[in-house]
Design goal:
Elements (H helix, E strand, L loop, with lengths): L9 E6 L11 H21 L5 E2 L3 H10 L2 H12 L3 E2 L13 H17 L6 E6 L6 H8 L4 E6 L13 E6 L5 E7 L4 H4 L15 H4 L6 H17 L6 E6 L13 H11 L5 E4 L2 H9 L9 E3 L14 H24 L4 H15 L15 H31 L12 E6 L6 E9 L8 E7 L2 E2 L2 E6 L2 E10 L4 E10 L23 E3 L4 E5 L3 E7 L4 E2 L10 E5 L7 H4 L11 E4 L1 E9 L4 E10 L2 E11 L5 E9 L5 E7 L9 E6 L2 E3 L13 E3 L3 E6 L2 E6 L5 E4 L15 H4 L3 E7 L12 E12 L3 H13 L2 E5 L2
Helix pairs in contact: 1-2, 1-3, 4-5, 4-12, 11-12, 11-13, 12-13
Length: about 775
C-alpha cells in the first residue's frame, strides 16, 4: 500500500434485478416479473425521491413497454430522462453465440428507443457473464455507447487478471473505444448488508455467514469497513466505488425501496465519514470521469474471452438447430438481395429468437441436481423451443426469398426439371448441389442428369433422405445466376456389379486406403485413421498432428452427489480425478469413388459411445474436405466432456486465427491481459496459416473450440503475445456437462458434428469465406419453365 493511499469516500449502491430467463421460474413468469418490477420502480421513485434503479438490459424494459399503458410509459420515460432510472444498451446477458449482425441489430433497437425518448444511451451493463468478443467494443461504440459496466461472476470464471473494481479503455479491432469498469458480483451490495430482505454471504465469508447473514447496522459497519480497507491496501486509486444490489437474495429479484432506510441509517451514523448514495451506472461513470486518477486509466486491445462459453455444449443438438438457423438467415439475406424479396419480418423474428437463445441462462437452477423435475424439464424444452422458433423464422425468410426468386413447389409442367442456381457468395464455385425430391423421379432404372444451355454436365448422384442429391460440375463466378435442366436418363455406372447393384469388383488395381483428388491425397490406416493428407500441387501436408477426429472423452465419478464435484472444479473443466479415454480406430477405408466427390469411412470405438463413425467426403475438383462425425452417446449423470481433435494446418509454425463475433483474431495474442486462453466460442471456424498458406476449418455445428486439450492443469492467463500458446492443438468441444447448476446434466442420444476444410495460398479471412462457400455451393431451387 502506498503512503498516500486513502479509502474510498463514496459508495455508489446501484439497485437492479439480475435477469436469468428460466433459472428461477418459467420464462413467461420471468418476463411478467420484470414488467411488474418496473411498475414498482415507478411507485418507489414517487415514494422516495432519492431512490434509483438500474435497468440491467433492454429486454427488461421491453417487457414493461409491452404491458404498460401510455401514461405509465410516459412516467418511465421521464424517470429515465431525469436519470433516476439508468438505461442499458445490452439486450440480455448473452453468450458469444450471437453473430455481429444480430448483436448490432438488438443493440441498435435499444439505442433507437432511448434516442426517441430524449435520452441518448451511453451505458451498457451486464451481470454474471465473464467476457465478450472483441468485436463488441466496436458494436457498442458504433451505436454511441461509450461505457460498459461489467459485473463479473467468478464462479468457474474470473475477472481479467483476477482483479475487479478497476477501469480500462477497451479498444475494438475497428478502433471503437469503450470505458469499461470491471465490477465484482452483481449482489455485492447484498453481501455488504444494505438490503433488509436480501442480506447474503456469497462473496464475503465471515462470522455473519454462520448466523445466516441477517442484515443489520453492525453487519454493514463490519463488512463495508473491511471491504474498503482491502481496496485501500491494494492501492485503489479512486474516491468512489460501485456495488450492485438486488431487492432479494435471488436472481430475477424485485426492487425493495426499504433499502433507502439502510442507506439513510448508514449516512446518519457516519456524517463525516464514508457516504453511501443510491445511484445508476451512468451516475457512477459521471463521477468516475471527474476523478483525478481518471486520466491514468490504461487502454487494452483484444478479446475479453468468456469463461462461461463452455456451457453451450451441454445441449449439442439444440445448438446445431440454432446454428443452422443463423446459416439459413444468412442465405436468405443473400438471396433476397438478388430477388428483391421483403423478408424483414422473418429476419426480425429470427434475430429475436437467436438473441433469446444466446441468453446465458441455459436451464433451471436445479438442472443438474433434479434433472427429472417437471420445472427443470419444462425450462429445458422451452429453451429448445427458442432454437426451433429461430429455425422456423429463418426457414420462412429463406422460403420467402426463394418464392420471390421464382421457386416452384408445384408439379413440373414437363418431364424436364428446371433449377435456378445463384452464387450469392464472394467465391468462384465449381460445383453445385441439387436436391431432387423423390416424387419428381418417376422412372425406375434411371438417374438424374444435368444440362446447361443444352450441354450435358458432369454429374454424380446418390440417394439421400427424401430424394436424390445431384452434384453438378459448373463454374460459377460470384453473383452468377443461371438455370440448370435435369432429366432422367437410363442408369449407367462404370463400376462392375451384378443384379444386386453392389459395387465390390474392380477391373483395375485399387487401394481401398488411398484417396487421390486434384487437390488432396488422403491416406487411411485401419488402426490409426487418417495418417496422411497432402496437397499434391505443393507437396505440402495439411495435417499438422495425429489422429484427427479420434474423440477424447473425460468423465469423473460423482456417486450420489452430482453437484459437489462439478461445483468444486474451479476453472478446470476436468478435475485431476477425471478419467481420460481416446477413441480407437477399428476400420478405415474408401467407400466410393466418383468424378466429383469420393468418400471414405472411419469406424471407432469409445467407451460410453456407440456407432462412432467418421464420414469423409473429398472433392475431386476443389480443395475441399467435408467430414461428418456421428455417434450415439450413452449419457451419464456424471460430468463429462467430448473433444474432437482437429489437427489441421501447415506443418511449419504459423498463426492460428479464429472468427469471433465481429473480429478475426489470434488467440493468446489478440487478448486483454489476464484473460482465459484455453477455449472460446467462434462463429464460422478457425484458420491455421503459415508462410502465405492457410488451412481453414469451418465448424458449423460446434462453435466451442479448445486449445491444448482439457486435461487438468494450472490455468495460465494471457500475459502478453504468446506464439507458442497460439499454436496449441485445436479441438472441437462437442459435449460438455460439467456445470452444476443450469446446464443440462446429460447429453445422451444421437449426434452429428460436421466440419469443412479448405486450403491454399489465401489469407485467413478469405480461407474461412471459401470453406463455407465451397461446402454450401450456390443457392439452388426448382423453378417452372
Amino acid at each position: 500500500m502506498s503512503a498516500t493511499a486513502t479509502p474510498p469516500r463514496t459508495v455508489h449502491l446501484i439497485p437492479h434485478s439480475h435477469t436469468d430467463i428460466g433459472y428461477t421460474s418459467p420464462r413467461a413468469e420471468v418476463a411478467r416479473a420484470h414488467a411488474d418490477f418496473l411498475h414498482e420502480v415507478i411507485r418507489a421513485c414517487h415514494t422516495a425521491p432519492e431512490y434509483r434503479w438500474q435497468l440491467e438490459n433492454f429486454w427488461q424494459l421491453e417487457q414493461f413497454l409491452a404491458a404498460a399503458d401510455d401514461g405509465e410509459i410516459a412516467e418511465m420515460s421521464e424517470l429515465i430522462r431525469t436519470g433516476r432510472v439508468g438505461g442499458s444498451a445490452s439486450y440480455l446477458n448473452m453468450t458469444e453465440l450471437l453473430d455481429a449482425t444480430t448483436l448490432a441489430s438488438v443493440t441498435a433497437r435499444a439505442a433507437r428507443w432511448f434516442a426517441a425518448h430524449d435520452h441518448p444511451l451511453r451505458t451498457a451493463l451486464t451481470a454474471d457473464i465473464n467476457g465478450y468478443s472483441w468485436g463488441y467494443a466496436d458494436i457498442l461504440a458504433q451505436h454511441g455507447v461509450d461505457q460498459l459496466f461489467a459485473s463479473i461472476h467468478t464462479h468457474h470464471g474470473l475477472a481479467p487478471g483476477g482483479t475487479d473494481q478497476r477501469a480500462f479503455w477497451w479498444e475494438g479491432p475497428g478502433g471503437g473505444r469503450v470505458l469499461a469498469w470491471v465490477a465484482p458480483h452483481y449482489q455485492l451490495g447484498n453481501d455488504l448488508g444494505f438490503c433488509p430482505r436480501g442480506a447474503m454471504s456469497y462473496t464475503i465469508r465471515d462470522a455473519y455467514d454462520a448466523r445466516g447473514a441477517s442484515a443489520s447496522a453492525q453487519m454493514r459497519e463490519d463488512r463495508l469497513g473491511r471491504y474498503l480497507t482491502e481496496l485501500t491496501e491494494r492501492d485503489y486509486p479512486y474516491s468512489i466505488v460501485p456495488a450492485l444490489i438486488s431487492g432479494a437474495a435471488s436472481d430475477n429479484a424485485p426492487p425493495d425501496v426499504e433499502l433507502t432506510a439502510a442507506v439513510q441509517d448508514w449516512n446518519d451514523r457516519h456524517p463525516e465519514g464514508v457516504r453511501v448514495v443510491l445511484s445508476t451506472a451512468e451516475e457512477f461513470f459521471q463521477a468516475l470521469r471527474a476523478e483525478e486518477a481518471f486520466h491514468d486509466i490504461p487502454t487494452e486491445r483484444g478479446d475479453w474471452t468468456d469463461w462461461w462459453a463452455d456451457g453451450v455444449a451441454s445441449t449439442p443438438r439444440e445448438l446445431r438447430i440454432a446454428r443452422d438457423a443463423h446459416n439459413r438467415l444468412e442465405r436468405a439475406r443473400a438471396l433476397a438481395a438478388v430477388s428483391g424479396a421483403d423478408i424483414s419480418a422473418q429476419v426480425a423474428e429470427a434475430q429475436q429468437q437467436l438473441a433469446l437463445y444466446a441468453e446465458h441462462t441455459w436451464g433451471h437452477s436445479h438442472s443438474v441436481l433434479m434433472p427429472w423435475s417437471t420445472e427443470v424439464v419444462a425450462q429445458d424444452v422451452a429453451k429448445t423451443s427458442v432454437a426451433a422458433k429461430a429455425h422456423a423464422a429463418a426457414t420462412g425468410a429463406l422460403t420467402r426469398a426463394r418464392a420471390v426468386a421464382g421457386e416452384s413447389l408445384l408439379p413440373p409442367r414437363h418431364t424436364t426439371l428446371r433449377y435456378r442456381a445463384v452464387n450469392t457468395t464472394t467465391t468462384t464455385l465449381s460445383m453445385l448441389r441439387i436436391h431432387v425430391d423423390d416424387w419428381l423421379l418417376a422412372h425406375p432404372g434411371t438417374e438424374p442428369v444435368a444440362f446447361h444451355q443444352g450441354k450435358a454436365l458432369r454429374c454424380q448422384s446418390r440417394p439421400v433422405a427424401r430424394g436424390v442429391e445431384l452434384l453438378v460440375e459448373l463454374e460459377m463466378a460470384p453473383g452468377a445466376d443461371t438455370v440448370i435442366d435435369v432429366r432422367e436418363q437410363p442408369w449407367k455406372h462404370a463400376r462392375i456389379a451384378g443384379v444386386d447393384r453392389v459395387h465390390d469388383v474392380s477391373a483395375a488395381p485399387v487401394d481401398d486406403h488411398v484417396l487421390e483428388a486434384r487437390h488432396l491425397r488422403l491416406v487411411l490406416d485401419p488402426e490409426n485413421g487418417i495418417v496422411e493428407a497432402v496437397d499434391p500441387s505443393r507437396g505440402a501436408s495439411i495435417l499438422r498432428g495425429a489422429a484427427p477426429f479420434a474423440a477424447v472423452h473425460s468423465r469423473w465419478e460423482s456417486g450420489a452427489d452430482p453437484v459437489s464435484p462439478r461445483a468444486n472444479s474451479g476453472r478446470n473443466r476436468s478435475p485431476a480425478a477425471a478419467s481420460m479415454t481416446t477413441a480407437s480406430v477399428t476400420a478405415a477405408r474408401v467407400t466410393s469413388r466418383g468424378p466429383l466427390v469420393s468418400r471414405a469411412e472411419l469406424l471407432m470405438e469409445l467407451p460410453g459411445f456407440e456407432h462412432l463413425r467418421v464420414g469423409v467426403e473429398c472433392s475431386m475438383i476443389d480443395p475441399l474436405l467435408s467430414v461428418s462425425v456421428t455417434f450415439r452417446a450413452a449419457g451419464s449423470w456424471e460430468a463429462e466432456n467430448l473433444l474432437l481433435p482437429l489437427p489441421f494446418g501447415p506443418t511449419e509454425p504459423g498463426t492460428l486465427w479464429v472468427d469471433k463475433t465481429g473480429a478475426l483474431l489470434r488467440p493468446a495474442i489478440d487478448q486483454i491481459a489476464g484473460t482465459l486462453q484455453d477455449y472460446m466460442l467462434v462463429q464460422r471456424g478457425f484458420v491455421q496459416e503459415a508462410g502465405g498458406f492457410a488451412v481453414a476449418v469451418a465448424t458449423p455445428d460446434t462453435p466451442l473450440i479448445a486449445l491444448g486439450g482439457i486435461e487438468h492443469r494450472t490455468v495460465c492467463l494471457h500475459s502478453g503475445p504468446d506464439a507458442r500458446a497460439n499454436q496449441r492443438d485445436v479441438a472441437a468441444w462437442a459435449i460438455n456437462t460439467t456445470w452444476e447448476t443450469n446446464f443440462r446434466a446429460d447429453a445422451g442420444g444421437f449426434h452429428e458434428f460436421r466440419f469443412h476444410l479448405t486450403w491454399g495460398e489465401l489469407d485467413a479471412a478469405a480461407a474461412l469465406e471459401r470453406a463455407g462457400a465451397l461446402a454450401a455451393g450456390p443457392e439452388t431451387f426448382r423453378v417452372q419453365d
